[in-house]
Amino acid sequence: MQNKEVLIEFKNVKKSYGIGANITYALNGVDLKIYKGEFVAIMGASGSGKSTSMNIIGCLDKPTSGEYLFDGVNVENLNLNQMAILRRNYIGFVFQGFNLLGRTSALENVELPLIYRKVPKEQRNKLAIEALKKVGLESVIKNTPAELSGGQQQRVAIARAIVTDPLLLLADEPTGNLDSIKSVEVMELLKKLNEELNITIIMVTHEEEMAAYASRVIYFRDGNIEDSLKKGFK
Q1: Which pTM was predicted?
Q2: Following DSSP, what letter does each residue of 21-60 receive, concatenated?
Q3: pLDDT tens digit sequence for 203-232
């Protein structure tokens, strides 16, 4: 961790579903701080609250009560359009299933977030190539996903997530569809991006071996944070 500036903060965050006797809490009063430059892994059983937390952090959902601050901004005060702008400009997403467009090249896949931001074509092309170089894929920029291995596809997805220079990278089970060798390659890449570019990374994983790459591991249980441990990769 490079500094003590708070990027993500939950203040007594609750997320409930249903009403009256049928109410259930996915999150039940969570307090959390994640600092700029951290690499945090989030773990927990199904239904523990980790996915709900990620949805709120990624501005895909809002708390029922409590406060969520993103870089000091209270997300509760944002409308849907403002939340979409925050997602588009400040958060990069990496998914288990890669979510690449099958008939387009690696370069065109990485350019996609820049198209949404209306970046001119020449600049878009340059930024996408730079992002692919950062993940070691400058030699396959014309290849479609079908012509890439699973590990390469995930690297393209990571390049797409960082091409906008986001404040935060959210990775949801990024090694879930990869074998052990490719998983290590992806985790080493994420660790490198965190250390060299100071990108804040929050990753959901169910694998202790992958969580070990993070500087801190947060364990969720029954809608609460059960533990928060500084771990670090050995």
Answers
A1: 0.91
A2: GG-EEEEEEEEEEEETT-EEEEEE-TTSSHHHHHHHHTTS
A3: 999 999 999 999 999 999 999 998 777 654
